[in-house]
């Protein structure tokens, strides 16, 4: 990459990062995940494309890491809600399966 291309990439990333930070500042904590997802996704996609093109220097990576940590840890965005009911019901069903099998086997063997 040329110096000019690197500078354009840095300026573009910083501008998009500033947009994300302004969005964080101008929204309530509960609204950030919804209201700032588009600018955050744009920044993340821009950074990923810069990485693929070899333009992502250490400063950009550090800035992106800081933004990603703020997004995911401080505001708890990007974490899908875990559904425990299917896991628990499947576990209980598997635990009850031997009891039902051996219980029905014992009852049926007494009938014969």
Secondary-structure blueprint:
Elements: H1 3-25, H2 32-35, H3 37-53, H4 58-74, H5 85-111
Structure, briefly:
The protein has 112 residues and is mainly α.
Describe, in plain words, how this protein is organized in 3D.
The chain has 112 residues and is mainly α. 79% of the residues lie in helices and 0% in strands. The chain is built from five helices and no strands. It has helices at 3-25, 32-35, 37-53, 58-74, 85-111. The longest helix is centred in the C-terminal third of the chain and has 27 residues, at 85-111. The mean pLDDT is 88.
Key terms for this structure?
112 residues; 79% helix; mainly alpha
Assembly classification: single chain
**Roughly what percent helix?**
over 70%
Order of secondary-structure elements: HHHHH
Mean pLDDT level = 88
Biggest sheet details:
none
């Amino acid at each position: 990459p040329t110096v000019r291309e690197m500078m354009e990439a840095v300026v573009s990333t910083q501008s998009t990062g500033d947009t994300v930070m302004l969005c964080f500042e101008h929204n309530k904590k509960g609204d950030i995940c919804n209201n700032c997802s588009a600018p955050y996704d744009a920044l993340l996609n821009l950074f990923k494309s810069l990485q693929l093109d070899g333009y992502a220097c250490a400063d950009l990576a550090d800035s992106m890491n800081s933004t990603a940590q703020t997004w995911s840890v401080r505001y708890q965005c990007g974490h899908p809600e875990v559904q425990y009911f299917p896991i628990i019901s499947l576990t209980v069903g598997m635990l009850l399966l031997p009891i039902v099998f051996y219980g029905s086997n014992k009852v049926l063997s007494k009938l014969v």
